[in-house]
Amino acid sequence: MTVQDRKQIKLSELEAALYSAGHPINREDIMQALGSRSEKMVLRYVEELASKLRARGGALEVKTLTGNRVVMQLKPEYGKMVRQFTNRPLLTVGPLKTLGYIAYNQPIEQTQVLDYRGVHIYTQLRLLEDMALIVRERNEKGIIIKTTPFFADYFDLSHDPEKSRTQIIELFSNLHPELMARD
Fold first, then answer.
1. Global pTM value
2. Would residue 88 count as lying in a domain?
3. Are residues 40 and 8 in the same domain?
4. Rounded CA separation 122/114 (Å)
5. Measured between alpha carbons, how far is residue 139 from residues 108, 143, 144 in Å?
6. Range of the domain at 120
7. Segments in 57-160 forming alpha helices (H)
8. In this predicted model, what pLDDT tens digit does every residue of 162-177 receive, in sequence order?
9. Bridge-partner residues for 60, per DSSP?
10. DSSP 8-state symbol, 132
């Protein structure tokens, strides 16, 4: 087997790992998946795969994110078109409203979310946690909720809560104008 053959196998393994994950993967996990101890080598594979996808001009892209994470995702310009092919939305309106409220007001006490959204939020919070979109942390005041880096990555938002507030208003009002109304 030639060096080029081994390289192509590693690129294919990287592509398979990123595609199957469906979420950002940290470099350490990629190194483990590729059987490599060299971060430089893994970075070269990531850059080469990203370059090949760009050159091909398809709908997928590989992005390097903050926190040494890498993701394969659909380019944003294809999001609206593919919605017709998805079986169901990622989140229904209720959990989306709860998530939007949390994201806009974070960090926020769970009692505030309960007061605003009602008792049905407990099931929604578990769902949002299971999807790795929020974290709940106990402190002296009670339970504090905030979004995760995966939330920012998934919705292509800034990791800075101040910057993301403006982005959240635009995103949620474009997705579902009814999300911005209180019910």
1. 0.56
2. no
3. yes
4. 8
5. 12, 6, 7
6. 93-180
7. 79-82, 93-105, 110-117, 121-130, 149-154
8. 787 788 777 766 655 5
9. 74
10. T
